[in-house]
Write a sequence for this structure.
């Protein structure tokens, strides 16, 4: 019996990973599309490894358990086949198929769901569409007029002209299975206003939001209580500020002028060497003292710092170094000090 147990456990584990494959399974080609070109089932696997005699189960019926399992394994494909036949035979041009029903919502008096499908196909072939992989089994496709969510077993469609989009939630995770650092996701509710059209949700990486927003012709409403980083730079600026806030403040009696980077706010940071780097001991890459007066706000300094880093390795930005925009003195994040304002 132990052989049956371990095989059953292995079967359900593999089935779950293949139906909803993690990134590693997709990379290895272990997906339904690649594996199940020809149908392979649980009972066939048992028979192949010699754990089950199909003729004995079906003809002699020695075990109710195996009879139920075998019958279910045979009836499920038959049931699915009957559903497919009903879609083909009971409607005109597969009009009872779930995808056809979804598209028929957007039909006018003189058009059919196939006309809508043709319009979508034409736009999908264009190179200016965007395709966002929200996870290993789900894609979001946005064309000039359509928003399409593709899942393994369902297709959601909305026409941009009569659809409202609401960003209603965000969640942040310190570690991601696809990246080596923090990742943030946003949830967008797609709400078609057309009669009989169903709303659906899109959950995507916050860094993909701008690409989606640029392609959508309608505004995406962001609820007031939802905050997220729209770009990688936004995320870095917040992390930069958090680290600088932990550094010692720089006291000065100088009159502070407008930031020369944005000319919008008063300069509020000073490069003040506080780290342990010593030029003589560590060579030209060591941090050195900057003698420039305070001329930058923290946002502009963070943007400058990010602009000098390797864009392909954002996880190293906070631990890297930069040069002063004016005198080119090398500094690290520990050398950036906030200047307290008079009301502090």
């Amino acid at each position: 019996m132990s052989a049956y147990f371990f095989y059953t456990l292995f079967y359900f584990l593999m089935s779950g990973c293949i139906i909803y494959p993690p990134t590693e399974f997709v990379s290895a080609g272990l997906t339904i599309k690649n594996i199940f070109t020809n149908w392979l089932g649980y009972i066939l696997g048992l028979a192949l490894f010699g754990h089950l005699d199909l003729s004995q189960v079906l003809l002699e019926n020695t075990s109710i358990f195996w009879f139920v399992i075998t019958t279910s394994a045979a009836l499920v494909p038959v049931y699915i086949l009957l559903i497919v036949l009903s879609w083909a035979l009971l409607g005109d041009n597969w009009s009872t198929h779930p995808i056809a029903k979804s598209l028929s919502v957007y039909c006018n008096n003189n058009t059919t769901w196939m006309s809508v499908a043709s319009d979508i196909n034409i736009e999908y072939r264009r190179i200016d569409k965007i395709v966002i992989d929200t996870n290993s089994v789900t894609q979001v496709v946005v064309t000039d007029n359509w928003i399409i969510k593709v899942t393994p077993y369902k297709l959601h469609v909305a026409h941009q002209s009569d659809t409202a989009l609401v960003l209603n939630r965000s969640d942040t995770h310190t570690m991601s299975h696809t990246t080596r650092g923090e990742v943030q996701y946003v949830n967008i509710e797609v709400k078609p206003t057309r009669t009989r059209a169903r709303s659906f949700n899109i959950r995507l990486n916050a860094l993909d939001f701008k690409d989606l927003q640029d392609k959508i012709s309608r505004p995406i409403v962001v609820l007031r209580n939802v905050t997220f980083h729209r770009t990688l730079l936004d995320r870095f600026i917040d992390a930069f500020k958090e680290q600088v806030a932990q550094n010692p403040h720089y006291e000065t009696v100088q009159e502070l002028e407008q930031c020369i980077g944005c000319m919008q706010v008063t300069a509020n940071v000073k490069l003040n060497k506080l780290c342990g780097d010593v030029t003589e001991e560590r060579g030209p890459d060591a941090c050195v003292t900057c003698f420039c007066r305070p001329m930058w706000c923290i946002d502009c300094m963070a943007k400058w710092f990010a602009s000098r880093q390797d864009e392909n390795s954002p996880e190293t930005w906070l631990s890297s170094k930069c040069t002063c925009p004016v005198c080119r003195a090398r500094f690290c994040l520990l050398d950036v000090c906030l200047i307290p304002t008079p009301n502090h």
Notes: Residues 83 and 165 are 34 Å apart (CA to CA).
